[in-house]
Structures are given as C-alpha cells and as structure tokens.
Amino acid sequence: MIAHTRNPSMEPQATCVFGPVHSRRLGRVICAELVPHKVCTFDCIYCERGLTTRKTIMRDMYCDFPAVVAEIRDLLHFEPDYIALTGAGEPLIQGQVNQLMQLIRTVTDVPIAVMSSGGLFWRADVRAELMDADIVLPSLDAGDNATLQAVNRPHARIAVDDMIDGLIRFRRRFKGRPIWMRTTLVGGVNDTAQSLDRIRRAVRRIEPDRLQIRTAEVPSMESSHVISPDRLERIVEYFGENTEIIDEAATAERSRGFRALAAVAG
Ligand code: SF4
Question: In 3-state terms, what secondary structure has residue 186?
Fold first, then answer.
C-alpha cells in the first residue's frame, strides 16, 4: 500500500509526501517532493514528468517545513530505509533544505537522501545546505555544453564546467558520506564515443562513490533513443569500477505494489 498525503494549506500545491516506494537505488523510501510540477533547472528530453513549465535557478520557499515533517512522521510506521527529498522538478530549487533536514531529524533517525539534477551544485549555498544529508544522488548526463543543451536543455545560466566544478567541490567537503551519481544515456544524443569520454573524464574528476547508468525509456521517445542491455554493459565496462546499470523500469515491474522512484525523482 502506498500512503499519499498532501499539504492542503499551501497554494499553489507545492508539497507532496508519499510512500513507501521501492527504489533500486535506495530500497524502501518515503518521498517528500519539495517543488511543484514542474519547476526545474532543466527540461530534459527524457523527462518522465513532461515539459518544464518554469525553468529557473531562483531558489524559493515552496514548502511548509513543519507540515512536511508531520506528514513524514505519519508514514514512519512503514519503516523506510531512507527519507528521500525529491521533486516534480529540481528539489534544490527549494531553499534552506538544511533546515528541513534538521527538522526531519527531530522525528526520526532514518537517513536522508537528496536527489538532484546536479544543475545547482555550482551554487555555494546549495553545497553548504547539502552537508546535512546522509547521501546525495546528483545526475550528470553530459561532459560538454553542446551535449548538456541537447539532453538537459538547461536554464541559460547553467554551464557544464560550473556543474562539474561544483560537484568536485562538494565531493571534497562531503567526506565519508556517499555520493551516488546517475547518468541517463539517450541513444544518438549523449552516447557517442566523444560524449561518453567527456562524461567519464568528468566523473573521474568528481570521484563519486558510485556511478549508476541507465537508458532513457520514456514512451514518447523513439526506440532509437533506447540503448540495448548489451551496449549498456559495454559502457559500464568502459567507465570502470564503481559503475553499474540501474534498470528502474525493471525495478518497477518487480516491485508490484510499489510506486517506482524513477518516476518521481528529479
Ligand atoms: S528529468 Fe529531472 S532534472 Fe530533468 S527535467 Fe525532469 S525533473 Fe527536471
């Protein structure tokens, strides 16, 4: 069973706490969506949430933090492995996420995971706030700006070198705690030899604990954009150690009764 609660006092509806969902990456998860659909730094061509309606890098207060914490507390009897801060867009558009994490810790010691597109890691305030997380899961789909534009269609202020530099800086500060990066590959867009080489070089500089690779599988996309399992295996070998495939579609199928986190995480 998935419990699903919404905060009725917020206008527009910004906060959504639900769960448990099953995530191959994290296990049993209670999700707190921090931003409304679809406020995001990106407008990824593979997004399962449809087109971005507000592309922004401006952080704001969308959540009523005490209400979010109360909703999380109501779902703790499901004994989640993680509380995941996510969004129907980029969760870190929500400001002061460190305060939210501190409040969550007043009701539970379940570890807190933060999902992100990675599009705001160039901001020092974002990196500082994330120091309160237990695990951070940023994405990186490109190692050069042309590919970033093609895959993620970012806000005009976002450049790939700034993203990578911010992730490197964050890695240095977030010592002893895991960073699991995710790369979504779209056939014919960011899976060329040159694109893969640039992503690999960026990942090696960032030094995450894991790199999790998946292929885009959105019904609206052409089949040529989907990369075969064999090819994904070869790409994982190319990237080297600490790299794995995540098959979130298969996870959703396996985990009958659970909503797939892939469909809700930014
Ligand atoms: S996939 Fe994530 S980062 Fe990309 S547009 Fe959708 S919500 Fe935003």
Answer: coil
